[in-house]
Specification:
The complex is a heterodimer of chains A (477) and B (484). Helix content of chain A is 39%, strand content 19%. Chain A is an alpha+beta fold. In chain A, the strands form four sheets. In chain A, strands 1, 2, 6, 7, 8, 11, 12, 13, 14 and 15 form a ten-stranded mixed β-sheet that branches. In chain A, a hairpin with an 8-residue loop joins strand 9 and strand 10. Classes of the chains: A alpha+beta (477), B alpha/beta (484).
């Protein structure tokens, strides 16, 4: 039987506010345990939550960016359950009336048609603390630094049809929240993570199959692998005559498998009800419009502009707009370089990203800044250096030897464009290789490359390649 | 000196007739003398009180004293006080010292008032007799075989016995007004949102409101001038200008329209109390007020609705008491479940557990709509009753309680009867309105309270209406024999 995979994601994006969603404590990551938890985060008796307006603004910004409805009135509710890292015994979240309703996003898996994925809702909530199970001699430690950190939970419709689509969707949201500057996107630190709802159904069937929910996936790779494992597991269960049960599962990245955490019967009754300590969030149209004005150019808009104005191909524009940092880098470099933006695109996507990848660095810590790269490309465009020599210049800049102009000067890399000088080299090469000359002249065209190589070698790569071609053709004719 | 109102004490302190240290010592001595019998204080903060009194004397000398500077008062043990134990009447918090000060007590501290100690109360403010306190029942100074009412029973008993000239209380379903009525004092529950709830341990967040317990309306105005106001740390507090509550006390009340809800004078009301209330109303008519019968048709629904809403909120408000970070923790927990169940099982008393159970039940999947949601709708109906009434009248009057103080233990095993002792006060909390209870007479030597309900944020008028009555009568100045 052919199975259709149905996936919906619940993405948790930590909002990049300075202080927590209901207290003034800092949200900075990595502090000593329990040093960034104030009386409110600790759920001390008598203390009360006060909503961080910045978190609301960020949620509204997200809603507008995905074409959703930003609610004029939304409500905080208490989600009740006991756990040591949940200080109040309830999480303040949104349930019936979320701040963002609807919305959609276009995704593209390489080699497939673009698809539109519907977003059900996005709501504000506070994060819990962390339970630390190591180093406490059989006991559990609790770190409440993260407790009260603002989260935006973005819930998709079950519109995703493969693990690859799920990853593409998650990447798209990941990019978007960073474009919007509402989340730092740091997945190692848990700032961006998701739960995946996975089910399968016979191809063509409308009714959804029973789903399982895989909790807390904090890398794109884990999302893909966990979903793939889960799909295989569900197919095995059904084809083996069994039934998929509704349950919550955990992905174990060491064993690359998911395993059951709790079944539907064991699921908590969260006893949601409106939090009487907080007033409803009321946003009027003027507020929403004021937020709309602050929206930056979004990835899809930027991509379209790169194609239309800079003449990039769809693939290039897609890669370069995948993150705002990369797009900004590219634009700055292209502006300085002048000339053909495609050349800048190739350099950024090729040499720069390659070197960064190899060094395990992100674009933000690139040793070669956009200004440096742009300056170097400018020298290619004005024929000061060739593309080949540029690779050498790039390496020097990477190693901190200064900008392109000083590297070119210090190493004497300026391109030879003096025809006379090039002709002298060519004459010498022709004189030294009579056999090859004869073969070439008798029709072995492929040998032309050999001569180009010899000339470039003799000029230490500095001869202008276009001129070399031109002059060689004349002399070998 | 110990029977003076805080208005009088304020003047005496200014005149230099006594110092705050002397006054504070006087009350501390009275507390030491009588607390064993009345059990109205959980903590007596003698050292801090004398220190604050000395500082107040400096301020009085320097001439920058506020009206309450140097005046000793008591705080209900529901307000967190930095460095001083805050128990909320529970074993759960027997060891709890907050690292922060509630907004309400901070305002009194900053005004120079001297805290004598923290008063006893029903556990987590859940009770109408002060018998649910882990620290034992409080006695009514008018008859020590009877309850003082609850949950602010300690505050009220202390003020009635003149162990403190004024106190703070909190009122979720009548917890200031009912004990004030049973002990012959003036108690005011302000409009919901008028006084900050920050640092006040929550029972039912949408109903809880702090207010003063005093001899007179004039004193209540002085207290309100300190307590009231917006607090950015309490999202439900209201950003609205605070009037000078003392300014309108003397206004005439000729033509005041008093509404008497027929539902408050029907079945269940003790006939002797009805006669006292009738006499009080007559007094108002003599002062020029006009009386009008009104109807609050949903009155009968107030108690059952309250016992859905309040337990629902308390069941989750009290989840934080889990033995993990503060409060009672059981010995040698075997695992997490054991830690939770034993810490909570040992730390909470019966009434608290009963309400947590009710609250958990009404919020459960499958029951939420039938109970909590329906209760919220009825709550709206109750508010609408009042809204309609206030289109016709300026204030609403009636008895505060259906009977005078009952005997200790009399209703302790019958929660429903106990719950019904708040029948006239609860609707006010459901609607979020302000209301006062003022002494209106006695039945068999026990005080009777007249409840005056006002429109939203109309505390000034309530206090004016109460003050005019108190100028014409002296019920509020009666002191139980033993404490004169």
């Amino acid at each position: 039987m052919e199975w259709e995979i149905v996936i919906g994601l619940e993405i948790h994006a930590q909002l990049a506010t300075k202080s927590k969603i209901f207290s003034g404590a800092s949200t900075a990551y990595g502090a000593e345990p329990n040093t960034q938890a104030c009386a409110i985060d600790l759920g001390m008796p008598g203390v009360l939550p006060v909503l961080n307006k910045e978190a609301v603004r960020m949620a509204a910004k997200f809603g507008l960016a995905v074409g959703a409805k930003v609610s004029n009135r939304s409500l905080f509710e208490r989600k009740n359950y006991f756990y040591p890292d949940l200080p109040k015994g309830y999480q303040i979240s949104q349930f019936e009336l979320p701040i963002v309703e609807g919305g959609q996003l276009e995704i593209q898996v390489e080699g497939e048609d673009a698809r539109v994925i519907a977003i059900t809702r996005a709501h504000l909530e506070e994060d819990a603390g962390k339970s630390l199970h190591e180093d406490f001699q059989g006991s559990t430690g609790v770190d409440l630094n993260r407790a009260g950190t603002p989260l935006l939970e973005i819930v998709s419709e079950p519109d995703l049809r493969s693990a690859k689509e799920a990853v593409a969707y998650m990447k798209k949201i990941h990019s978007l929240v960073q474009y919007l500057e509402i989340c730092d996107g740091n997945m190692q630190e848990g700032s961006f993570r998701c739960d995946a709802n996975v089910s399968i159904r016979p191809m063509g069937q409308e009714k959804l199959g029973t789903r399982s929910e895989i909790k807390n996936l904090n890398s794109f790779r884990f999302v893909e692998r966990a979903i793939n494992f889960e799909v295989e597991r569900q197919i095995d269960v059904i084809e083996g005559g069994g039934k998929v049960v509704q349950e919550t599962r955990l992905y174990d990245s060491d064993k690359d498998e998911t395993r059951s955490m709790r079944s539907k019967e064991e699921a908590f009754d969260y006893r949601y009800f409106p939090d009487p300590d907080l007033l409803p969030i009321e946003l009027d149209e003027a507020y929403i419009e004021a937020v709309r004005i602050t929206l930056p150019e979004l990835p899809d808009e930027k991509k379209a502009r790169f194609m239309a104005e800079l003449g990039l191909a769809e693939y290039e524009a897609g890669v370069l707009t995948a993150s705002r940092e990369l797009a900004d880098y590219f634009e700055e470099a292209a502006k300085i370089a002048g000339g053909d933006a495609k050349r800048t695109a190739n350099w950024v996507m090729g040499d720069l990203l390659g070197a960064l990848n190899k060094a395990g660095k992100g674009i933000a810590d690139s040793p070669v800044s956009a200004a440096l790269l742009g300056g170097m490309l400018q020298r290619i465009n004005d024929n000061t250096i060739s593309g080949k020599i540029a690779k050498q210049v790039f390496e020097c800049m990477w190693n901190g030897e200064g900008d392109a102009d000083s590297v070119i000067k210090a190493k004497g890399l300026k391109q030879v464009t003096d025809s006379g000088a090039i002709e002298i080299i060519i004459d010498e090469i022709i004189a030294n290789n009579p056999g090859q000359v004869e073969q070439y002249r008798s029709g072995k065209d492929k040998l032309f490359g050999f001569f180009v190589g010899q000339v470039m070698k003799a000029s230490q790569g500095k001869a202008n390649p276009a001129q070399v071609n031109e002059l060689l053709k004349q002399k070998l004719a | 000196m110990h029977t003076k109102t805080i208005s009088q004490l304020s003047a005496v302190l200014r005149s230099g007739e006594v110092s705050s240290v002397e006054l504070t010592s006087l009350f501390l001595d009275r507390i030491k003398q009588h607390n064993l019998a009345l059990n109205c204080f959980i903590s007596i903060t003698e050292a801090q009180a004398l220190e604050a009194a000395a500082a107040a004397d400096q301020r009085l000398k320097a001439g920058n004293a506020a009206p309450l500077t140097g005046v000793p008062i008591a705080h209900k043990d529901i307000f967190c006080t930095e460095g001083v134990k805050t128990t909320c009447g529970s074993k759960m918090l027997d060891n709890f010292i907050a690292p922060y000060e509630s907004t309400c007590t901070a305002k009194f501290r900053d005004a120079g008032a001297v805290m004598l100690g923290k008063t006893n109360m029903d556990e987590f403010a859940m009770g109408s007799s002060n018998e649910t306190s882990y620290f034992g029942a409080v006695k009514n100074p008018w008859d020590q075989g009877r309850v003082p009412g609850g949950s602010s029973g300690g505050s009220v008993s202390a003020v009635a016995a003149r162990l403190a000239p004024a106190a703070t209380g909190t009122d979720t379903g009548g917890s200031i007004r009912q004990p004030a009525a049973l002990c012959g004092l003036t108690g005011l529950k302000p409009t919901y949102g008028r006084v900050s709830r920050f640092g006040m341990i929550a029972f039912a967040s949408s109903l809880d409101q702090a207010g003063p317990v005093t001899y007179s309306a004039e004193d209540a105005a002085l207290m309100m001038n300190v307590m009231a106001g917006f607090d950015e740390r309490d999202s439900t507090s209201v950003a609205r200008e605070v009037p000078d509550y003392s300014a309108n006390l003397e206004n005439g009340i000729e033509g005041l329209k008093i509404g008497l809800p027929k539902e408050y004078f029907g079945e269940g009301l003790d006939g002797n109390i009805a006669r006292v209330i009738d006499a009080a109303i007559k007094e108002y008519e003599a002062l020029g007020a006009v009386v009008k019968e009104i109807s609050l048709p949903n009155t009968g629904l107030a108690v059952p609705t309250y016992y859905v809403v309040a337990p629902a909120e308390c069941s989750t408000n009290l989840s934080r008491f889990d033995g993990v970070r503060f409060g009672h923790r059981c010995d040698d927990p075997q695992d997490l479940f054991d830690l939770y169940t034993r810490s909570r099982g040992e730390g909470f008393g019966l009434e608290v557990k009963r309400r947590i159970m009710i609250g958990t039940y009404v919020l459960s999947a499958g029951y939420y709509d039938a109970y909590y949601l329906k209760a919220q709708k009825i709550r709206r109906l109750i508010s609408d009753d009042f809204r309609a009434a206030f289109e016709k009248v300026d204030v609403i009057m009636g008895p505060t309680t259906p009977s005078t103080a009952f005997k200790l233990g009399e209703k302790a095993d019958d929660p429903v009867t106990m719950y019904l002792s708040d029948i006239y006060t609860i609707a006010v909390n459901m609607a979020g309105l302000p209301a006062a209870s003022i002494p209106a007479g006695f039945v068999d030597g026990l005080p009777v309270g007249l409840q005056v309900i006002g429109n939203y944020f109309d505390e000034s008028r309530l206090l004016n209406v109460a003050h005019k009555y108190q100028q014409a009568t002296d019920w509020h100045l009666q002191v139980p024999k033993e404490f004169q």
